[in-house]
Amino acid sequence: MKRELTSWYSPSVNKEMPIATYGDYGFALLLIPTAAADYLEYERFQMIDSLAHFIDSGKIKVFSIDSMNNESWMHDSMWGEHKAIRHNEFNNYVFSEVIPFIKNSTSQETPVITCGASFGALHSMNLFLKKPDIINGVIAMSGVYDLHEYTKGFNDDQVYFNSPMNYMPNLTDTWYLDNIRKSNHIHILSGSGSYEDPQASRDFAGVLYNKGITYELDIWGEDMTHDWPTWRAMLPHYIGSRF
User: Fold this and answer.
1) pTM beyond 0.70, yes or no
2) Sequence-distant (≥ 6) Cβ neighbours of residue 204 within 8 angstroms
3) Is the domain 3-242 a CATH 3.40.50.1820 member?
4) Do residues 32 and 53 lie in contact, with contact meaning Cβ atoms separated by under 8 Å?
5) Of 16, 141, 198, 219, which is least packed with CB atoms within 10 Å of its CB?
6) List of residues 6+ apart from 34 with CB closer than 8 A
């Protein structure tokens, strides 16, 4: 498997940001880390190994980036307003730097699918919903789509506009809705075992349903806990059967 590590100084977040790339061809799968993890998390937890067949066969080209959660919502001593600012800087980094990097590494026509587990699921969904013209779909695993779950009581407009469970019910802009509806790849997945919250996935799927957005909701069994074995089972299954 071809593996490349790249980094550049990001003007969006004012720091060096690394990215790991796996493979040569296929649609682009952009992995967003869980919680406070980094760009090599999916490799350390053998997710890349579980996707090796699809990478080597040219079905997918995987891109894995750093999170900024340690400098935003998981930074306990930071003011809430500053956490929200940092979160938006991360969003801008993805939109204005990572997506162009992916397109330059593949082609302008290559579809980009965001993907993440746990907190990464919320980020993956939010990134797609905010830019459905440049991101073509999302695979969200074991997510909670209300950002307030992570803000420790802080709330402002920027929390609202980064919390899909809050802004999507009130979204009426036809440009956004029409572009979101174009996607054939909105996959909302959850286990039912320990530390999973399948109701959060059901609730968010209901929001999409009310907006006339096509999605796939898949709730796995009680043997599927909020942990890597679950996500290593889910993601290869969906890559193999839905793409």
Assistant:
1) yes
2) 125, 143, 145, 164, 165, 168, 188
3) yes
4) no
5) 16
6) 41, 67, 116, 117, 118, 119, 120
